[in-house]
Request: fold
Amino acid sequence: MHLGTIIVECNPKEVPYSELILLACVGCSNMFNNYHCPPYVPPASLFFKKVLQEAEYCYVVASYYDLASYIVKLCDKCRSIIQALTLASKIVDSRSYWVHNSIIKNVITLAGNKTVAVLGSGGGCRICPTKLRKPCGAVTGEPCRFPKSNLAFPSPESHGIFVYKLAKMLDIPIEIPPRAFVTRIGIIFTKTKLMYQVKQGLNLPTLPTTVMKKLEELAENDKHLIKRIRRESIHLDPTSLQLKSECQKCKHYHFCIQLLRYVKKLTLHMVNVCLYVAEYGDPATLSRALVRTGVCYATIPISSTLVLSKKKEKVYPKTICGKLLGLNLRAGVLALY
Reply:
């Protein structure tokens, strides 16, 4: 399943970030429900203030996992290709999470006490749901059960990092959305140079040339996905965000109150962001298409009617509400640069 790993060194000062990236976390059920996700992790401004003061080197760890073979195996057992894709994605997501974090753990071991900060792959911490079959302590009101674990790391997005922009900057290929390969990206900030130790101390399989070529082909422009959209330049002032009177009738009213309280504490300064408004389709599809074609590096799906998703019988918003942002539109995407 693990096809190979790429480790690229870069300057910590060149890692792109914005605190508005946290709005992309709204579409994840881990927000407010996981100690390795917002609002329990330091905001981007505080995180990078510490990192840029202490870290001299940054290492981006990209691991690739085979998804296509799982889809082929499951096609005979499932009623449709969509069902096979969904099941295969869950299997690869679960297995690749632990493999990737183990790789990061090995790199950290080489760095020793020279490690400044570690960011793992997306999805927050999964130790309690996997080992204890219990939700995170953030849900039950308990303190973290594994505060010193070396297999759980916050995701780069939770600290406002533009993962797609960083990958493109370092020529790390990613398939968006994953259909043949799943890519997991972690970031390690250190005080010392590690590339020699990594090459000598870790026996990691390198990514085959055939897989690399296939990834580059999959990353080609897919312009037919973004027809019939219009682009607008808008001014968004995060400090002026407020709920409307009709919001009280929404089932996500209390979630948005939590979100607003968190956003108000951040030092957000955002002017003239790009808004892509879809003439048809849903914001999630438009978001994937824009990133895939290289139009923008970070996208936040927004909709006046919240798109809902179910996870373990719990309903949570999959897009951020346009009313909260003061935008009157049916479906769109907020593009950050």
Remarks:
- The first helix runs from residue 44 to 54.
- The chain has a mean pLDDT of 78.
- The longest strand covers residues 57-66.
- The two ends are 34 Å apart (CA to CA).
